[in-house]
C-alpha cells in the first residue's frame, strides 16, 4: 500500500513532488499566468485595464467558491473524488481560453478555473500535511509550495517566449498544453495516499469549533494577507507598463523577479519558522511584505517596482505555509477543514482587491495609488498576528 512505505525521506520525495506539480499547474499555469499575460492582452485589444481587473475578480470569486467546496468535502475519501474532477476542470477551462475573445465568456471561464484552483490549492497541501504529520515530518510541509514558485517562473518563461508568436486568445495555448500531462501525473500519485480520518472512541469524526479566541485573530490576519498581496500579484506588470518606457527590461522583468524570489521562499520561511517559531516568523513575514507593497506606492519607477517584486515574491508563500501550520496547531483534529475555511476567507479578500482596484481606476485614480489598499491590508494583518496565541506546531 502507498502509506506503508512512506516513512523514509526517499519515499516522501514523490509525494512532495506530485503536490508541487499540482500547485504549479493550477497556480502557475492557471491563476498567475494571467498576470504576465494581462499587459499583452490589453495591448492586443482583447481587454482593457478595467476589464482585466473584472476578469481577475471573477477568477478570485471562483477561488472562493472552490475553497467553500473544500470545506464541505474535506474528508480523505471525498478529496480522492473531488481532486481529479477539479484538475479536469482546470485543463478544460484553460483550453477554452484559447477559443474566445468575448469578455463575458472569458469571465465565466476564469471563474470556473478559479473554482478548480480553490479546490486543488486547499486539498493538495492539506492532504500532504496530514500525511506528513502521520509520519512525523510536518516540518517539511512547506516544501510543497515550491511548485508555486516554479509555476511563476515557468509562466514568465512561457509568456515571454511566445510573446512575438501568439496574439489574443492564442496566448493561452502553452499553458493549456502543458497542463494536461502534469495534472494527470500529479493527481495519479496523490489519490493513492491512504490516511485515516481522525475519529473519537465511538468512531465519529473529532471536530472542534473553527472560530474561537485563538483562531479568530489568525483568520483576520490571513484576511489582511489575502487583500495585501493580491494587488501586486495581479497588477505589477501592468503598473510597469504604465510607468516605464517601451522596451524597458522591467516590462517583463518584474514578473520574472517575482518568480525568482518566490522559488526559494518556501525553503526560507520553513527554516525561519523552525528557528524563530512559526508565529514570530509570520509577524516578520507580514512586515517585509508590507514594505514591499509600500515601495510600489512611494517609488513607482524601477526602484519601487524591483523592491515590490523582491519583497512580495519572497514572502507571500511564507504567509500561506506558516499560517496553515499555525492553524493546524490550533485545531489538530480538523486540519483540511480549517485549511479550507482559511483559504475561503483568503479568497474573499483576494476577490475584493481587483474589484476595489476597478472602482478606483474607473473613478480616475491611478494604479500606483491603488496599491495603498494593499499596504493598509497588510498593516491590518500584521496587527492581528500579534493577537494569535503561541502554539506548538504538531
UniProtKB/TrEMBL annotation:
Whether Cytoplasm counts among this entry's keywords is no
Keyword Membrane applies? yes
Which InterPro entries does the record match to this protein? Answer: MFS_4, MFS_trans_sf
Xref: Pfam families: MFS_4
* SUPFAM superfamilies registered for this protein in UniProt: MFS general substrate transporter
The UniProt transmembrane annotation reads: 12-34, 46-70, 82-99, 111-134, 143-160, 219-240, 246-269, 304-323, 335-356, 368-388
User: What's an example GO cellular component term for this entry?
Assistant: plasma membrane
At the top level, the lineage of the source is: Bacteria
Q: Which UniProt keywords apply?
A: Membrane, Transmembrane, Transmembrane helix
What's the name of the protein?
MFS transporter
